[in-house]
Amino acid sequence: VMRSLYFMVLRFFVFTAGLPGMRDQGAAVAAALTNAASGTADMFLDELRDREPLTPSAAGPGGAGGSGQRPLSKVVQMSIDAETLAQGVRQFRAVLEELFAHYGWTDAAGFQVTAAVDAARSSFEAVSVRARDLLFELIVGKVESLLSSMCFISWEPSRARPEPNAYADDVINYLRVTFMVLTHLPLAVREAVHFACCSRVAMTVLQHVLNPEVRNVNAMALLDLHTDTAAFEGFSDSCGVPHLRQCFAELRQTLDVLLSQELRALMEDTDQLRQRYPRVDLGKLAGILEKVRPPSSLHSRAHAQSRGSALLELDRKTAATLARRLRAEN
């Protein structure tokens, strides 16, 4: 599109712009072409609007489900195309300015053309931004949909799992394929999507444990979450985005405190706790402590002890007392 726009206008100016009486016609031709570019941008926006709202639950890694839903890869391509056209319009404006300066077009006709070019550029930029916003909405929405399966987790299991829970595998597999679809987006946009998704995963997992619907939690369930978090961190390291694992820092440190062999000492010395685990929110830590219950069987207790969990030493009353102390400190 932009190549055709270049050659048509440049040929017109080179061969006719210097002739008597051609200035007004040249301005009209340039304005018509830039208006056509604006029309293309409007068509993109209409296409995006027609496809909203996207249904995250119907979207697979590469796209959406049935008719009326825009595949993820198509939204990515629309963003790339619109940004490319915006860059082309910016270059086109620079060419026009040189031509206007050469032929002395500094009157209203020249300003009218450059204003039309600026409008076209703004339209393409708006398309690119809207498409990127749509990407965030779709991907984060799908992640939240996958995380909703945490409601099936047993929070008082008899032993810890050797592998991550199914919801963690589902989220990692979805993000691994989805991030590949974003390969040709600008680096800043790709990294922003990575951080948005990983931050949402960490936040949602921690919030789910704090949800009032989760009434009791034992050491086995926290060990399982520890395994899930390690899987998320391993995946984030494999993405090649610097500091991405920091999205899971609060979740990781909260679990590290709860599973620490020095749990009681840390609870009694909050200054030391803050120094060693600066990302931990004392209010959230207290909220989980209030739900802690000892394992229900000797076998479970032995299994937790083999993993080094000090939660076994806390009965319900002691955990509640420590939680109240944390809330007071918070």
Short descriptors:
single chain; 330 residues; mainly alpha; 13 helices
Distance between the termini: 60 Å
Sheet of most strands:
none
Q: Round the mean pLDDT to the nearest integer and report it.
A: 79
**Would you tell me the structural class of the helices and strands?**
mainly alpha
Indicate the percent of residues in helices: 55-70%
Beta fraction of the residues?
under 5%
Report the order of strands and helices.
Answer: HHHHHHHHHHHHH
- Rg, please? 29 Å
Overall strand count: 0
- What gross morphology would you assign? elongated
Number of helices: 13
Describe this structure in words.
There is one protein chain. By secondary structure, this protein is an all-alpha fold. It has 13 helices and no strands. Helix 1 runs antiparallel to helix 2. It starts with a helix and ends with a helix.
Please render the helix and strand layout as text.
Elements: H1 2-16, H2 23-50, H3 72-103, H4 108-147, H5 166-181, H6 187-210, H7 219-238, H8 249-258, H9 263-268, H10 270-276, H11 282-289, H12 298-306, H13 316-329
Q: What does this entry show, briefly?
A:
It is built from 13 helices and no strands.
